Amino acid sequence: MVSHAIKKQLKYHAMQLDGEVTVHIPKHVNLTIPVHLTGGILRPGDQLGNKVGGFVTSIPLNAPEGGSSRDRVSHISRKLHREKMLPAPMISWVLAKLCSDFAPDWISKLALRKFNANSVAVVSNIKGFPFGVHWLGRKVSFISAFLPLPPGIPIGVVVQSYDGNISLGINADMRVVPDAEKFADWMLAEFEIISQK
């Protein structure tokens, strides 16, 4: 869904420039994927805190030759599952912790820019409660996730579930995604195509 919206955004920019500048639409783009190293579980004796690493992956913007959108999404899903199991998320967490604990802020920011490998987006999923919860005696009807943009990455997307529903959170640099609602619509249109088959 995100790759589809990125491709549509690039085509939209090309159309807006009306031939003034050639916009190259690549076959693949890099995404940064955050990974919670403990699976979101606070074990006995652990302290509360973000134990989130990440990795960069290259994803296709088009379906495999002769394939459908669903084939592309399946390919990306399998690829992400494999890469999530590699040591990259743990290594990135250790490096980020070292930078934040011992280096000046400017070095940490520079490291984050370099480590993102020219990612065009950071994409995260949050599995929420499969049932409604209550807070101070009132039912929580909606939970919204927000993904602050890391240095050098212009698009952040969170796909979240809660109480049987799925929601999207999009944060984007307006120079890259001038209309986040349109970007979300492109994602939802792709979701509709995939879910119909």
Q: What labels describe this entry?
A:
single chain; 197 residues; alpha/beta; five-stranded mixed β-sheet; two-stranded antiparallel sheet; 38% helix
Description:
The protein is an alpha/beta fold. Helix content is 38%, strand content 23%. It has five helices and seven strands, in the order H-E-E-H-H-H-E-E-E-E-E-H. Strands 2-1-3-6-7 form a five-stranded mixed sheet. Strand 4 and strand 5 form a beta hairpin. Helix 1 (2-17) crosses helix 5 (180-196) and helix 3 (88-102) packs antiparallel against helix 4 (105-115). The longest helix is centred in the C-terminal third of the chain and has 17 residues, at 180-196. The radius of gyration is 18 Å and the shape is globular.
Task: Summarize the topology.
Layout lengths: L1 H16 L10 E9 L15 E9 L8 H16 L3 H15 L2 H11 L5 E7 L6 E2 L2 E2 L15 E8 L2 E8 L7 H17 L1
Parallel strand pairs: 1-3, 3-6
Antiparallel strand pairs: 1-2, 4-5, 6-7
Helix pairs in contact: 1-5, 3-4
How can the largest sheet be summarized?
Answer: 5 strands, mixed
Using only CA atoms, what is the Rg?
A: 18 Å
Poorly predicted residue ranges: none
Strand content: 15-25%
Secondary structure: number of strands: 7
Q: Please tell me what the overall shape is.
A: globular
Query: How confident is the prediction overall: mean pLDDT?
Result: 88
SSE pattern = HEEHHHEEEEEH
For the termini, the CA-CA separation is: 15 Å
Helical residue percent?
25-40%
Q: Class by helix and strand content?
A: alpha/beta
Number of helices: 5
Strand adjacency order, main sheet: 2-1-3-6-7
